[in-house]
Amino acid sequence: MSKKPSIPKGTRDFSPEEVAKRSYIFETIKRCFKLYGFQPIETPSFENYETLMGKYGDEGDRLIFKILNSGDFLRKVDDATYAEKDAAAMTSKISEKALRYDLTVPFARYVVQHQNEIDFPFKRYQMQPVWRADRPQKGRFREFYQCDADVVGSTSLWQEVELIQLYDAVFSELKLKGTTIKLNNRKVLSGLAEVIGASEQLIDFTVALDKLDKIGKEKVETEMREKGISEAAIQKIQPLFEVSGDASEQLQTLETMLQHSEVGQQGIKELRFIIEKIGELGLRTAQLAIDVTLARGLNYYTGAIMEVAPPEGVAMGSIGGGGRYDDLTGIFGLKNMSGVGISFGLDRIYLVMEALALFPETVREGTQVLFLNFGEEESLYAMKAITALRKQGIAAELYPDAAKMGKQMGYADKRDIPYVVLAGEAEMAKHQYTLKNMKTGEQEYVNFEALLENLH
């Protein structure tokens, strides 16, 4: 007996209805990207191993899917390495490529390779799948789409302001009210690490801090201790866990904590600029809030960082995130090319919209009219009308088999096709059609012009 087929954990099949809903989100995001002047690019689904490794921190590197070399890939592994059973040492010998972890690092590689063809500042958007060897759970998949917008070649903070507006525009178009755009700055975090004496452990500090809303204060402190951050440093950071109030009050608290940190003060200055300008311009539906513990675990961020939380009451992680990276292209040899970008989490946005019943009915629209099949001659008569309707932009189709009428009507009903056309000998003799409304059950005898008018 053959084994029942399955798909890998963390991946999914999508039904026609799910694809239609996902396409609705895609098209909405793409429309806003274009409105804000972003241009589309695409990159390969896999990159060279060295392009990706070392760009996401230790945790990110562990989640990269490696691709085994073709052929006898073990031949290049010497006996000593094989005997040690050191996966990290062996990987570089048996794998030269890996599935992309995100779209930002491949974009940096793209900019470096095509720098002579690009007009800077370069505003690009990209909507493609990425892969992470993560533990699957609600809203977290091993294969998922990212929808990114980035600007490279400018250090202007107006780019951060515009990207916050872009988030607001997309979620407003999707009728997703009550989202919160959380904002922080990596310079602030660097300043905090500096004033508590943990500058050498900045990465460990930020990775632990970023988990505050997920695991709580005590577990964050435990993780910091495990990473070697001193008890004195943990005590100095306590005021950070208690920060509250509006953006202005939080900035004042940070100014007090970071009064002796030049880099920290620069981060506060950048935050204030963004907050003040958004305050002047306003947002349609989203809220902007400072989150002093927001760190985002990716090592390449250097300035503003942001993350989008769904409306209250929806149990879901962030549905978007991004930030400023001052020298990501530097790792590929192109120095002083600052960039900033954001990403939309399509799959999580889908789940939030589904939970809040935000998809419009029109998303499910497919075939508008089904012509029943009464035989070869009748089918030809129907196909002539179907061809003419399609030229007018009306989705029409013929049931392929001359099955019982009840079966054909049941097919139309299951697919939510709103109209059915019956065209038998009587209709053909008079060049007419019987049009049936599947919702009301009403039928009318019409010529082609009337048929077209009813279906428009």
Question: Could you characterize what this model shows?
Answer:
The strands form three sheets. The protein has an eight-stranded mixed sheet with strand order 1-5-6-11-10-9-7-8. A five-stranded mixed sheet has the order 13-12-14-15-16. The two termini are 51 Å apart. The chain is built from 20 helices and 16 strands. Helices cover 42% and strands 18% of the residues. With 456 residues, it is α+β, with helices and mostly antiparallel strands. A hairpin with a 5-residue loop joins β15 (433-437) and β16.
Sequence-ordered SSE layout with sheet pairings:
Elements lengths: L15 H20 L3 E2 L5 E3 H4 L4 H6 L3 E3 L10 H6 L2 H8 E5 L4 H10 L8 E10 L11 E10 L5 H16 L6 E6 H10 L6 H8 L2 H4 L1 H10 L4 H6 L1 H4 L5 H11 L4 H20 L5 E4 L13 E6 L10 E6 L13 E7 H10 L13 E3 L4 H16 L4 E3 L6 H10 L4 E4 L2 H5 L3 E5 L5 E4 L1 H8 L1
Parallel strand pairs: 1-5, 7-8, 12-13, 12-14
Antiparallel strand pairs: 2-4, 3-4, 5-6, 6-11, 7-9, 9-10, 10-11, 14-15, 15-16
Q: What are the defining features of this structure?
A:
about 450 residues, alpha+beta, BirA Bifunctional Protein, domain 2, Rossmann fold, 2 domains, eight-stranded mixed sheet, about 40% helix, elongated
Quick take:
Helix content is 42%, strand content 18%. It is of the alpha+beta class and 456 residues long.
* Tally of distinct domains: 2
CATH architecture of the largest domain: 2-Layer Sandwich
Q: Main beta sheet: strand number and arrangement? A: 8 strands, mixed
> What gyration radius follows from the Cα positions, in whole Å?
28 Å
Content-based structural category: alpha+beta
**Biggest sheet: strands side by side, in what order?**
1-5-6-11-10-9-7-8
Percent of residues in helices = 40-55%
Number of strands: 16
The proportion of strand residues reads 15-25%
CATH superfamily of the largest domain: Bira Bifunctional Protein, Domain 2
- How far apart are the first and last residues' alpha carbons, in Å? 51 Å
Given the C-alpha coordinates, what overall shape results?
elongated
Residue stretches low in confidence (pLDDT < 50, at least 5 long) are none
Number of helices: 20
CATH topology of the largest domain: BirA Bifunctional Protein, domain 2
What is the averaged pLDDT score?
91
